[in-house]
Write a structure and sequence with these properties.
Could be part of an ABC transporter complex. It is built from nine helices and no strands. By secondary structure, the chain is mainly alpha-helical. The protein has one domain. It starts with a helix and ends with a helix.
Length: about 250
């Protein structure tokens, strides 16, 4: 019976962990607007300061996608579909996923390191002593800032990625500029764009929640902060890819 017992113990532990994280997220989301100044600071940190890395990632992705689609399309005499596929691929899939992963690499690690350091140096305990809710002060602004900012970053990344494909298409592959732009927008539908923005909001929640959870539950001094930072980035990245699969199945 030992294998059965171990399986049951693992399942119960997983269910308990999921419940704890869900309650933690619910408490954080429920405190929306409690500290607007801190929310504004986190919007600057998560949104504005993440724009360069998201923009560069989208630019090179769109350019590489145009080259790859043109190379593959020539085998089937279908290279004219480059503008449409670049646009659809960016707004539906690559823009949200790569934008989310770049934000996860930058933001989840920073949140986990900051909150983890506060935990091991007992600053969070000091907040409790001063009758300040740590979740409302530290977690809620980060969750809501990520939910609000990542869709904006995804939208900007979509535009930059399509521009990257346009630059390569016109200057390298020989497309007419006006025709390329017209074909890019002709095959896009409103739901393509909206679905990508919804994915961005979900990915933002995953990123901030991973950073906050591992940061707030840090223990073990400096080594614990390092483990929390690594775990936050890994959890956010895997969560984004899993959520992308689920949302794509629901949307399309």
């Amino acid at each position: 019976m030992n294998p059965v017992r171990l399986t049951g113990r693992a399942a119960i532990g997983l269910a308990r962990m999921v419940g704890r994280v869900a309650i933690f997220a619910g408490r954080g989301l429920a405190r929306a607007g409690a500290h607007p100044s801190e929310l504004a600071r986190q919007v600057l940190h998560i949104g504005w300061l993440s724009l360069p890395v998201v923009g560069l990632t989208a630019l090179f992705t769109g350019a590489a996608l145009a080259l790859q689609i043109h190379s593959g399309g020539e085998r089937f005499q279908a290279s004219d579909v480059v503008p449409a596929i670049v646009a659809i691929g960016m707004v539906r899939e690559l823009g949200p996923v790569l934008g989310g992963l770049m934000v996860a690499a930058r933001v989840a690690s920073a949140i986990a390191a900051e909150l983890g350091t506060m935990r091991v140096t007992e600053q969070i305990d000091a907040l409790v002593t001063l009758s300040t809710d740590p979740v409302g002060w530290l977690v809620s602004p980060r969750l809501w800032a990520a939910i609000l900012c990542v869709p904006v970053l995804v939208g900007v990344g979509d535009v930059i990625g399509i521009m990257g494909g346009w630059l390569i298409g016109v200057n390298v592959l020989g497309f007419n500029s006006a025709v390329y732009i017209a074909n890019s927008w002709a095959f896009l539908e409103g739901w393509d764009v909206v679905s990508g923005l919804i994915k961005g909001a979900a990915f933002g929640l995953i990123v901030a929640l991973s950073g906050c959870w591992f940061g707030m539950t840090t223990g073990g001094g400096a080594a614990g902060v390092g483990r929390a930072t690594t775990s936050a980035v890994v959890a956010a990245s895997v969560g984004i890819l899993a959520a992308n699969f689920v949302l794509t199945g629901l949307f399309f």
